[in-house]
Design a protein that fits this description.
Length: 563
């Protein structure tokens, strides 16, 4: 017997044969223990080596063959494991674990019926092994032996009693055999045996609904509601079924009853509410939504899904600001909502955007979804808008790295943003390199063309290139004051002061409140056209703006242009 102890105080002198047997057993034990140790450590090759050494000394010891089979099975070598497992099972026919390993290996080798034969023998061996009927049923199901599976499941049910897993398996078989009545009968037996569990009712309702047994499903639900009126899940099912039958009053009463219960899962409530929001707008729908909204807020005042559902309604109704604020509340509670984060970020850009507030959500987005390049792009753009250009570059470069050229539109937009950030950092070579890459990917991006042309004009570099890009933009957008201002400034830098004034006049016409930059530019142009007093007048108008240049006070004081 493997690992049997021997007394060191034995008085009897051992024969040579007995000493040899003791030595063999000691070596077997030592190698076996080493093999087990390395198996625990996950070093399968070493474990296999020592177990094989143990087997050399004790080839008829089933535990060693079993362990070798286990090592090979863990190493994903079921073909090699099978002979060892079979040897162990044959050497010790009473050990069920050896038999179970043979069954497992046969299943892995896609020989389910061989595995089934072993489990059949085990389960026929008395009450101790009845739990293996469920495994046996699964094997028969996977092998397509549905009638045998039903026999085994009935056997398991007689041992365990009516249980949900057994019922579900039997229903799947009956539905696969197109025996709807038997599947329904199994569901009814489960409901009767486990009275008061709405999940079992809803499971049968789903089967009935999917098989166009709407009336039968509704009768079942209403009967259960009569017995258990405080189960909101049943009222939600009644809502759906009444609605399917066109019974509007009954369906609305059912959903209001369900929403009135604080026990209704808020996720279910929110999804149902959102589904109604997607329906065609009518006064009746709006009235129902008003009631449901009040009940959701009353029963689930701090649920992320509730804020999301109500926010969706506000957006559908054109109340964008209120909708986005509700989405933000949802994200504060549950930030792991990728779609909602994207909606909040993309819908918060604009002339009056609160970039400090918005940055909270771009940071949240990259924290929760660090593999999404779009969120790094948004974070970079927001930081760029806040003059946090060093941080913007980090986020934008991360967007490029993660995108890896998969979305060329994203790459193009990111290159343009990097151009802006590097220019603000006074790294003009890098800035213009990224602008070139952005223009190469999309030669018609008006923002990139405008910014690139403007920065080139400020550096008095490649002015003909700047002029072509800016001219292209104003041809497409002849009423955009910002674009007209850029073109005017490019012309100014080329020395075309009359042309610059012409386009600056147009820019001023199209801006209700011209920026300080535009006012100062206009003064510079007028100065070069000899209109000194008018120039000083515009410089003074620009003086109040934070956008004015550092040279502006000197221009006003001396009454002359300074670069």
């Amino acid at each position: 017997m493997l690992f049997a102890g021997t007394s060191s105080f034995a008085q009897k002198k051992l024969s040579r044969k007995e000493r040899k047997a003791q030595e063999t057993e000691a070596k077997t034990t030592r190698y076996y223990i080493e093999g087990e140790k390395y198996l625990v450590l996950g070093e399968l090759d070493k474990s296999y080596f020592y177990l094989q050494k143990a087997l050399e000394f004790s080839p008829e010891e089933p535990a060693i063959s079993y362990k070798i089979a286990e090592v090979l099975l863990r190493g994903n070598k079921p073909e090699k494991a099978l002979p060892y497992a079979e040897k162990a099972a044959n050497l010790d026919i009473e050990n069920k674990y050896y038999a179970l390993m043979v069954a497992e290996i046969n299943t892995n080798l896609n020989q389910p019926l061989k595995a089934a034969a072993i489990l059949e023998k085990l389960t026929a061996d008395g009450e101790n092994n009845q739990q293996y009927n469920l495994d046996l049923a699964s094997i028969y199901l996977n092998a397509g032996e549905y009638d045998k599976a039903l026999i085994v499941l009935d056997r398991a049910e007689s041992y365990f009693g009516i249980m949900e897993p057994i019922t579900r398996q039997k229903q799947r078989i009956y539905l696969g055999k197109n025996n709807l009545e038997k599947a329904i009968e199994e569901g009814e037996r489960l409901i009767d045996a486990k009275s008061g569990n709405p999940d079992y009712v809803l499971s049968l309702v789903e089967i009935l609904y999917n098989n166009n047994r709407i009336d039968q499903a509704l009768d079942l639900v209403l009967g259960e509601i009569e017995k258990f009126p405080n189960q909101p899940e049943l009222h939600m099912a009644a809502y759906t079924l009444h609605k399917e039958k066109g019974q509007r009053n009954e369906s609305e009463n059912s959903i209001i009853t369900a929403f009135s219960s604080p026990d209704l899962n808020p996720e279910i409530a929110s999804k149902s509410f959102s589904s109604i929001v997607d329906e065609m707008q009518t006064s009746e729908r709006d009235s129902l939504l008003d009631k449901l909204e009040r009940l959701m807020i009353q029963n689930h005042p701090q649920e992320a899904s509730v804020f999301e559902a109500i926010g969706k309604r506000r957006l559908k109704e054109g109340q964008k600001d209120e909708g986005i604020e509700l989405y933000k509340k949802s994200l504060v509670i549950n930030p792991k909502n990728q779609e909602l984060l994207e909606q909040v970020i993309t819908n918060s850009f604009g002339e009056n955007a609160d970039f400090n507030e918005l940055e909270k959500f771009t940071i949240m987005a990259v924290d929760e979804f660090p593999e999404k390049p779009e969120f790094w792009f948004y974070d970079g753009v927001i930081k760029n808008a806040q003059k946090k250009d060093s941080s913007a570059v980090i986020s934008l470069e991360k967007a490029v790295e993660l995108n890896a050229g998969k979305n060329l539109g994203l790459d193009q937009a990111t290159y343009g943003a990097l151009g802006n950030a590097f220019y603000n950092l006074k790294e003009t070579d890098k800035s213009f390199k990224y602008f070139d890459k952005a223009v190469e990917l999309n030669p018609n991006d008006e923002q990139v063309l405008n910014n690139y042309a403007y920065f080139l004009s400020l550096e008095k570099k490649d002015l003909e290139k700047a002029k072509k890009m800016s001219e292209k933009v104003v041809r497409r957008f002849p009423n955009n004051g910002t674009f007209l201002d850029t073109y005017a400034w490019v012309l100014f830098q080329t020395g075309d002061y009359q042309g610059a004034k012409k386009y600056m006049d147009l820019a001023m016409e199209h801006e209700l409140e011209p920026s300080g930059v535009m006012l100062e530019h206009y003064g510079d142009i007028l100065y070069h056209l000899g209109q000194k007093s008018e120039a000083i007048s515009y410089w003074k108008k620009a003086e109040k703006s934070p956008e004015a240049s550092e040279k502006l006070p000197q221009k006003i004081k001396e009454g002359k242009y300074h670069e």
